[in-house]
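Schema walkthrough. Field components (list of strings):
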Amino acid sequence: MKENQLTAVQKALEIILNSTEDFGIEEVSFEESLGRVLKENIRADRDMPPFDRVSMDGVAIKSQAFAQGRREFPIEAMQAAGSPKLSLKSDESCVEAMTGAVLPGNTDAVIPYEQVEMKDGIARILSEEIGVMQNVHRKGLDRKKNDLLISVGRIISPAEIGIMATVGAHRIKVGGLPKTAVISTGDELVPVEGTPLPHQIRMSNVHSLKALLKPYGICPDLFHLTDDPADLKSKISNLLNEYEVLMFSGAVSKGKFDFLPQILDELKVKKVFHRVQQRPGKPFWFGKRDRVTVFAFPGNPVSTSVSCVKFFFPWLRKGLGITPVEEKYAVLDQDFEFKPKLTYFLQVKLLNKKGTLYAIPEEGNGSGDLANLTLSDAFLELPAERNHFSKGEIFPYLQFRN
Amino acid sequence: MKENQLTAVQKALEIILNSTEDFGIEEVSFEESLGRVLKENIRADRDMPPFDRVSMDGVAIKSQAFAQGRREFPIEAMQAAGSPKLSLKSDESCVEAMTGAVLPGNTDAVIPYEQVEMKDGIARILSEEIGVMQNVHRKGLDRKKNDLLISVGRIISPAEIGIMATVGAHRIKVGGLPKTAVISTGDELVPVEGTPLPHQIRMSNVHSLKALLKPYGICPDLFHLTDDPADLKSKISNLLNEYEVLMFSGAVSKGKFDFLPQILDELKVKKVFHRVQQRPGKPFWFGKRDRVTVFAFPGNPVSTSVSCVKFFFPWLRKGLGITPVEEKYAVLDQDFEFKPKLTYFLQVKLLNKKGTLYAIPEEGNGSGDLANLTLSDAFLELPAERNHFSKGEIFPYLQFRN
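Field assembly_structure (string):
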């Protein structure tokens, strides 16, 4: 590949997805598993519901007695939720039964209080007809013992946490996470607490990246390296030994002080590609050394966000074994022109109008306009081969804000 | 209001939104603010960019010299990113300038290396024409000093974190969060680590609720109370003194052992409504005592999730001053029948087909079927007044999984 040749976005993504790593398995408390990836199948430990469960407060009777014309049923007992199962002694009486309770033995229908007159210890049923097993949620109706409830590869949400609690899966296997270093470079950067001189700016990308990784449970260590080649080399050498992912921001364009590609080469990190046919984010550099993966993103803030969402997330998700999600699409809401032969990631605001998602361009003044990101929710991916994109056309989008 | 009368869903929501509380303001590090609600306006501390910024690596010249026919420019110096501003001494020379650097004084155009031949300390420009200020991102082009960058009421995402870093807002004001207790009730419940007897089940709702609250930064304390009225009363009395939100799961239907409404009444918690015209979640009870707000959700897991998403989240968001979001809609993907005169929250899987969101019903076996929630992403809200819902119709949805 020639030095100046750009890798197409789709090709770059394919290459990255063929370079994933297995981060292993970790056991955690189910309570701390939100956002993690399940690495074991969760099965029903018993039938769901585990017993014939009363689903309305009322009285439980034997329906045959009702069918034979009986309407008044002396109350024998009270079946509360959480109490051991009682049993109706006489076919001609009833047991009061509460929602969530076990259906009492020798009964097969629950008449809700609304259809019952209670007086002097006798329940008089007002309904004209009743059904066998009415208001009873049958044992095993939802799921049978050993049924698969949640499969490997599922991202754990509050619903999965509830299910794991129900079946007693209090320690669960989840995907391990790569030990990650996020590294800014460039002498122009000062810390957030600092006051930059006129030619300086504060470092922001490492903080955005850290926040982007948080929903996956990755808590990266942050580093800043100055533009001194010897120092860069020795520090990066250490990081390569200590981390599984190095994510750089800056120092990969072709400026005299963008030493990174050369230093990585000297440190035996194999360059897989450098420069992608996209805007923003063209100078993106990707490489590997054994099991260490290096994502070197360009230094401007929007490039960094685009590249993380478009390339790092799919790489991470595949490595974690997350069940793939379908691509999402939105309708471009106005005509848009983009001349260079580059895939363009257009900043858009998504609007749900009657069930259709519209992408409203929120164009700033180029790839460096970070402030503009607060106006948008997603990047609409416009193909490189075209210049004109018409209102009403449908394109995939990458969401970076819910 | 009669004892048995149901409050319409829309009415219940209005009442709840008229009962919000102000949780105050808290100052946190910007790094820990993800998901919190901004309570101060973030403004540009200086122009963005703060200087005329070089946007391509190349050579900076005075365009007038080029216009006058000059093509060869001796290199005077190197302007690196992060270095103080240099100034071109001779109008007929150039300064090498790197992406992110200050545009050198006395220059007004950057010619990228691709259009330059460098030899023996002289840059020979190959381009046929150049523009004044080409490849320069002008000072203040994106935003002027003091421009509003992020407004009060914004939920903080990675983009906002990047901007706060850029302008040095390292300590920021965010909305305080209500001190919240999540309480399960019912003798039928055993801890997740326990082995339930045949008539018992494990407690799951409190764990789902805790997970649902996490994205907002609320970390509730969890409690379990047994079905003993005296004990319930004394413990709830303490909780009312210590917390700003009490969220119950269970004990609000009309069973003999569902003491909660009565106990809350005795503890001077004013019932605002009890029972909502919806399925699941009909027995939902809502009340206030001074500044303490009590959400008592029915005990079945799906009811709890629906009620939290439909009622608690909007209450919380309004109290936090979150900029309201538009309702979201999806297209029902198949005919559906629901006879009772109740708003029905249909479990659906959302599918994005060419920019339109389709809601595929994932019906389980009734409101208690927790396992079914793993198949769905959202509840489609079907109005109470109708029985038949046709494929192709559009309804609002509440998402509970991304």
